[in-house]
């Protein structure tokens, strides 16, 4: 009996990224035969300006290439659908690109062959490095080059691009020249695009069987939402993880509601289910589509809404600014971008019996974190010179405190940027990236969770011995202000510049002076030093003993007192600790 199962299509997501006006939308249009609901600059503002303001999607299908038939195994696919994700190149919309880059299998970096690499091209390349492992470079607008010099100019730019990519994960990637819209966007559609057939052949050759995992919770990135009278609300987007079937219940976290799935379509064809990597339209029971233009849909209860988070951190090497604690950055996490205050810290490693303090291999993983560890506050992110003369980074983490709560999956990618810096400036605005390791879902996290985070700051105080009361006791001054609560410091150890150690017994008088007990007693030379420095310069006339003790010679070296301790930043008791 003949197999009557419908033909199966393998979906492959290709991101089209590049600088504004490099011709990404024209390229997607030239490649596509089926445009999905989101495609080709549907936004009126975008039409007016001729730029993509949101993730446009379109697709074209080809017979399954031979090399993929082998890697599909027993999964019977007969065609390959390239879903083109046209990401905006407009600088202020970088957050949209980061949202789109998470669902991309292969990236096409579109470069204007006349202008070469531009600021946003470089930013797209960085995002690609964080989110994607395969890339093709498209040198577009070759029709703008004089025909007699065209090939030489293309060869020169190809060479330049290979040099640019030499130290990235895309070293040696394919580079192809095309003219997606000869004459430019205003020109009538008379001239055929050039190089597109060759590009489709290259895409077919570069396509691979993407890793798709239907297990786990559903997470779908939503890019559009509209109503169909009498049927319900249609949500279109791409499944980032898990799978979806007709009759499933899904949650819309932004609206705090659940809805039942009535039907599922992939490029206008009804399907019973869809899985990770698929681009789908999902019809659910009615809600107001205006409330969810973008965002996520998930398995009920699977996403966390966070007020703060702990992340691993790596600096993006092209970022020129400082990464300082207490600074604010735009944080892109999940499908949201929100302002957050950042605080950096690194680990204080415990010593083993040999006196070494090296972490275990699991602990060395950048994505490992424990509330049991001791940490040290950093005023700014640390970079250091490596032996080879390059830049190295010790392992570091950061606490992010969001200006408004964000909804995101666990362990997701986090990108920090300065989107308020000059759009046209020739500087990279992407500052750091990392993984979300711990999320704080409690609004009162500063009282409930932060005290568990053992981040300390080292403190030093210095004062001077004012006088000796006996061989085992001295009075110190200038360590504390008059208003300091000295009870907090009682029992802490201090060291004198002459080598003796003692402890603070309590306050002396009302002006912040302290009494220090020296259990081993003062050395003879210390007593001599202190007695010589407290003898009065003779000026005639008798004075009482206490005033003699109060005065010091201007040229005498005072004996200084050193107090070192650490304080845990988030300890509600504000206790002082000494190692």
Descriptive overview:
The protein is an alpha+beta fold and 579 residues long. Mean pLDDT is 81; it is low at 33-56, 89-93 and 536-554. It has four domains: 9-206, P-loop containing nucleotide triphosphate hydrolases (Rossmann fold); 219-298, Translation factors (Elongation Factor Tu (Ef-tu), domain 3); 304-350 and 369-382 and 394-453, Translation factors (Elongation Factor Tu (Ef-tu), domain 3); 458-531 and 557-577, translation elongation factor selb, chain A, domain 4 (Thrombin, subunit H), CATH 2.40.10. The protein is 16% helix and 37% strand. The N and C termini lie far apart (80 Å). The strands form five sheets. The protein has a 15-stranded mixed β-sheet that branches. A seven-stranded mixed β-sheet has the order 2-3-4-1-5-6-7, sandwiched between helices.
For the structure shown, list the relevant keywords.
579 residues, alpha+beta, Rossmann fold, Elongation Factor Tu (Ef-tu), domain 3, 4 domains, seven-stranded mixed sheet, eEFSec_C, cytoplasm, EF-Tu_GTPase, protein biosynthesis
Low-confidence stretches: 33-56, 89-93, 536-554
Tell me the name of the CATH class of the largest domain.
Alpha Beta
* CATH architecture descriptor of the largest domain: 3-Layer(aba) Sandwich
Strand content: 35-45%
Q: In the CATH scheme, what's the topology name of the largest domain?
A: Rossmann fold
- Total domain modules: 4
How many strands, what sense, and barrel or not for the largest sheet? Answer: 15 strands, mixed
- CATH level 4 superfamily of the largest domain: P-loop containing nucleotide triphosphate hydrolases
- Helix content range of the residues, please? 10-25%
Globular, elongated, flat, extended or rod-shaped: what is the shape?
Answer: elongated
Total DSSP E strands = 33
Average pLDDT taken over every residue: 81
Quaternary structure of the protein: single chain
Work out the helix count. 11
Distance between the termini: 80 Å
Question: How large, in whole angstroms, is the Cα Rg?
Answer: 33 Å
Structural class: alpha+beta
